[in-house]
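Me: Here is a favour to ask of a fellow structure person. Could you put it straight underneath, so I can go through it closely?

Assistant:
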Amino acid sequence: MIGSVGVIFGETGSHTYRFAVTDPADVKRTDYVKVWHPTDGWVLGQILTMTRSAGNDNKDRLVATVSVIGARDNSGLLRSPKTPFRPGDKVYIAEEDVIVDTLGLSEGGAYLGVLDGTDIPVTVDRNKLIQKHCSILAMTGSGKSYTAAVIMEEMMEREVPLLIIDPHGEYATLKEPNDDPDMDALSEKFDIEPYGYDNVYIYTPGNKKVCEYADRTLRLNGLNLKPKEIIEYVPSELNNTEIGLIYEAVNALKHDNINYTIKDVLVEIGSSHSNTKWGVYNKLEPLLDSEFLSDKPTPLVELFTRGRTSIIDMKGIHPEVQQTIVSKLLSNLFEARKAGLVPPGMVVVEEAHNFCPEKGFSKTTCSDVLRAIASEGRKFGLGLLIISQRPAKVDKNVLSQCNTQIIMRVTNPNDIRAITKSLEGISTELEEEIKRLPPGVAMLVSPDIPRAVMVQVRARKSKHGGASKEISEDIEPEEVDYEDEEEEIEEPARPSVGGSIFRKIFGRG
C-alpha cells in the first residue's frame, strides 16, 4: 500500500468528509479512496469535488470532498459507518481488490468496459438486462449507438434473440469486424479481438431499392384483415364516417366469401357514392406505397429465435409508417412471447423518443405496446433496450421501468431533469458529472452495483456504423454551363383529389 494522499479535517460525517491533499499529483476527481474506521475496517469512498482554499498560513490548500460508499460486513452486506470519521485520519488510494469487493463487481456478465481510470472490468448480469430493461441516454456524438452495439455483441455471444428497430441503418455493420486503425491497442487494453457476427439478418419493410444491402424484406400479414386491424395500420386519424366505410367494405368482402387484401378493400370503398371515400383513399395510400403488407408475412419464429439477430432497417420509410410497422410487429411479438411461441429475448429501439414519446410532445401508434412491454415484459422474458438522445421526450413510464441506465454526456437542462426523475438518489455532483462526461465514458446505474459508477466503454468487436458523416473540403463543386440556356416553364398541372391512389388501384386517373 502506498503512503497516504491526505488527512481528514474539519467537520466529518458518516456519508461525506473532506481531506487536505498532500500532493496534487497523487489524486484526481472521481478517484476511489479508503480510510480505516475502528469499527468497520477499510471504508471505500469516491472523490466528488476538488477545490483550492487558503490555509491558516495563507498558502494554497487543495481540498477533496469524498462521498462515502461503505464497507462490506461479515454477511457481505454493504454498510455505511455508524460513527463519523475522525479529523486527522489518513486517506489512501483504494486498491483494485477493495474497489471490486466493495462495489460488488463480478465477472461473467455482459462486459461493458472498465471502471474509468482503472483496468477493472465492469460487467452486468445479462438476465437482469433482459428482465428489467435498459436505457442508453446521451446527446448526439457521445457514443450511445456505439455503446448499444457493445451490449448487442454481448447478447449475441450468448445467443440471446435480438430484434433491433433501426431507423437510420446504423447497425448493419455488426456483420463486419472492427477495422479501427487503433484496434491493436484497443484489443490489448480491453482484451478483445475484432469479430464480425454471422447470424445477423437485415430486413427492410420496403424493397431492395430502398435498402440495397438488406438480406430480406419484412412483410406483415395483409390478408383478410379485420376493420380494426386496418384502422390500426392507418398512420393518420380516421373520422367516424371513414371508419364506417371501412367496416362496410370489409363486411361486403366477407359476404362474398373470398380472400381479400387492402387493395380489394379500397376497390370496394370505391363503389361507395359517399365523397368520404376520397379521404379514406388518401389515408390508406401509405399502406400501398410501403409494400409491407402481404399475403405471405414474415414468420415471427424466423425473426426471433435463439442465436439470431434481426435488424429492421427503416431507412427510406416514412416516419408514420415506421411507427405503424413497429406497433404491429411488437404487438405480434409480445403476444407470441406470452403464448410461448418464441423464446425470451430483447427488443432494441433506437431513437426511442420517436416511437414512445412523452405525453404532450406527440402521440404514436406504437406507444401503447412499448409501455406494455416496459411494464409487463419482465414477467414474460421480453426485455427492452431503449436508446435516445432526448430523454425528456421519451415516455417517462417507459424510462422509469429501465432498471439499468447507461448515461453518457447530456447537457440539455430538460433532459437532465428527465434523467434525475427516473433515477433515485442521484446527487447534484453526479448531475454535474453527466454534463462533463467525455465521449466513450458512461455513468452506469445498475441493480448489480450499489452506486453509480463511471465506465470507459470497451471497444466494439464489430465495425462501427453510427459515426456522423464528415463533409469533405476536397470536393469540387460541379461546373454547370448556363450559357444561352433557356428552358420553357410549364404551368403546373392542377392536382386531382385521390388521383395517384386511384391509378394504383384501377390503373387510370
The two ends are 85 Å apart (CA to CA). The mean pLDDT is 87. The chain is about 30% helix and 20% strand. The first strand starts at residue 6 and ends at 9.
